[in-house]
Design brief:
This protein is an alpha+beta fold. It has eleven helices and eleven strands. The chain has a four-stranded antiparallel beta sheet, sandwiched between helices. It has a three-stranded antiparallel beta sheet with strand order 4-3-11.
Length: about 350
């Protein structure tokens, strides 16, 4: 069977985002498929043992396990095992997910929502196409649905009803306009400021931690030799190849290149040298403590603020995600108001 049982959104439930006690207290997000097949090992452990009851409908250990895999799919690569430190948070999050989905499904039924026959047929056909052979499909049908096409169809229909209601109540109401994004950008300008920074390459000579006078003398000589070679380079590539060959700092494996570093994170001696350089310049020896470094400046970026055009897509996505989270949480709260929920 292929790695995913998903088909471009046809069988994909709309994302379900609920707060659950994760390590970073973030909002959990995943898009469960209409059917997540559990591994053979996990299937043997999972059962129809009830784990929750929602307005009389029983949710089972198998339902919970599938949801855990949706949250932490890497478990499939380890015979269904979830790392013990993560298991309580993932299980708690999965429990909230399956309860929420069941509440949404029951609400769709209460509203007498209907999936058009043509859409259901397409979804069934798409689901079958996820399997490499008819034998794989039939094996799953037997193991998970007792060979019943009707049970499978019901599962697919349930998924589509959940998706339809969530699109109506959340996706359709979470659109963010460009004007809203711009207003957020203007109101929260400090979020889009960046500090003065430098991008550069280094070749360093580093004597031992408790170097003797002789070792310090040898390091100074190596540094002078390195400077002569560095000053003979003409391009960042030549400088980088030399760094790989003779530099004694960890950046030698990256051709001596440092990603943009804010000014306030650099030693004063280094900042002083960098401020006197233009891109492409190579510094003299810079001594910081007992070690020496040679710098080739690539870019000096003054402090500034990102333009709205640069960040507007990022802002739109973030605001839409925030609105989605708020709408989903509100829907969850509303559906739970008069529901009878028992965790068993």
């Amino acid at each position: 069977m292929k790695a995913k049982l998903q088909t471009g959104g046809i069988l994909l439930l709309a994302s379900v985002l609920l707060n659950f006690p994760a390590a970073s207290a973030q909002v959990a997000s995943h898009a469960p498929t209409v059917f997540n097949s559990v591994s053979t090992t996990a299937s043997a452990v999972a059962s129809n043992r009830p784990v929750a009851r929602v307005n009389g409908t029983v949710l089972t250990e198998t339902d919970l396990l599938r949801e855990e895999y949706a949250i932490f799919p890497y478990a499939r690569q380890h015979n269904g095992a979830i790392p013990p430190p993560m298991e309580p948070q993932i299980r708690s999050g999965a429990m909230k997910m399956i309860i929420f989905e069941e509440l949404v499904y029951q609400e769709a039924q209460r509203r007498k929502m209907v999936i058009p026959a043509v859409k259901l047929q397409r979804a069934e056909a798409a689901f079958r196409q996820q399997f490499d052979t008819p034998q794989e499909y039939n094996a799953l049908l037997q193991s998970e649905f007792h060979g019943s096409q009707k049970m499978l169809r019901s599962k697919i229909e349930r998924s589509l009803l959940i998706e339809a209601l969530l699109k109506s109540e959340i996706d359709g109401k979470s659109t963010v306009s460009l004007a809203e994004a711009r207003a957020y950008y203007l109101k929260n300008s400090t979020q889009f400021q960046y500090p003065e920074s430098f991008t550069f390459q280094t070749i360093s000579v580093i004597p031992p931690g408790k170097a003797s006078p002789q070792q310090l003398k040898e390091a100074a000589k190596r540094a002078q030799d390195a400077l002569k070679q560095a000053q003979a380079t003409k391009t960042d590539e030549e400088f980088g190849l030399l760094a790989e060959k003779i530099s004694e700092d960890d950046y030698r494996v990256m051709m001596g290149e440092h990603k943009p570093i804010p000014r306030d994170q650099l030693a004063p001696e280094v900042v002083k040298a960098l401020l006197a350089m233009k891109p492409g310049d190579i510094s003299n020896l810079i001594q910081v403590g007992q070690f020496y470094t040679i710098i080739r400046l690539k870019e000096h970026t003054p402090a500034g603020k990102m333009k709205f055009e640069t960040v507007k897509i990022q802002v739109l996505k973030q605001l839409q995600q925030n609105k989605t989270n708020q709408l989903r949480s509100a829907l969850d709260k509303k559906l739970k108001q008069n529901a009878k929920i028992e965790e068993l």
